[in-house]
Amino acid sequence: MSERTGFWPAFRRWRADRPFWGGLLLTLGGAEILLTMKASMKVVLHVGMQGLAGYLLPALMLLLGLLIVFNPAQRLFYSITAVLLSLGTWLTSNLGGFFVGLLLGVVGSCLAFGWLPDQEPRKSRKQRRSAVAAG
Predict the structure, then answer these.
(1) How confident is the model at residue 20, as a pLDDT?
(2) Which residues of the chain are under the pLDDT cut of 50?
(3) Phi and psi of 111, rounded to 5°?
(4) Do the Cβ atoms of 22 and 115 come closer than 8 Å?
(5) Maximum Cα–Cα distance for the chain, whole Å?
(6) Backbone angle region of 37, left / alpha / beta, with phi > 0 → left and psi within -120 to 50 → alpha
(7) C-alpha dihedral over 95, 99, 100, 104, to 10 degrees?
(8) 79 near 110, Cβ under 8 Å?
(9) What is this structure's pTM?
(10) How far is 111 from 19, CA to CA, in rounded Å?
(11) In this predicted structure, what is the pLDDT of residue 41?
């Protein structure tokens, strides 16, 4: 079987070496919560620490999602911190971005926590069928 070259095969190999989907979902959850926050900075400063936490927690979620993707060696610490931040947004950020960002953050953190680096990549359905037909 020959190795294909190009962008998509290289991206698939890169993606297989890290908890990509967990980091992506966590990043999307943080971005969704940030986008649903509509208060101006004047209002945030007037409300105080509670208003600042409404922006700080989703920004940290977004940062941790990127760190999970680009630094998978520390994924356990990042994912535990991210699930706590995701759950904290329920109180600070419009019920966690109306539950959408909260759920994306928790699911992404759990996927990153459960990812195993030494696991062989899954074979496609086509590869499994051809192996069964050949065997």
Answers:
(1) 95
(2) 1-2
(3) -65, -40
(4) yes
(5) 70
(6) beta
(7) 100
(8) yes
(9) 0.80
(10) 7
(11) 67
- No. of helices (H) and no. of strands (E), the chain: 8, 0
pLDDT digits (tens, 9 = 90+) for 31-46: 999 888 876 667 766 7
CA distances from 88 to 7, 63, 81, 134 (A): 38, 16, 11, 52
CA dist 88 and 11 (Å) reads: 33
d(CA 78, CA 18): 13
- What pLDDT score does 80 carry? 97
R_g over Cα of the chain = 19
DSSP string covering 6-32: SHHHHHHHHHHTTTHHHHHHHHHHHHH
Separation between Cα atoms, residue 29 and residue 25, nearest integer Å: 6
Q: What is the pLDDT of residue 44?
A: 67
The DSSP symbol for 74 reads G
Amino acid at 23: G
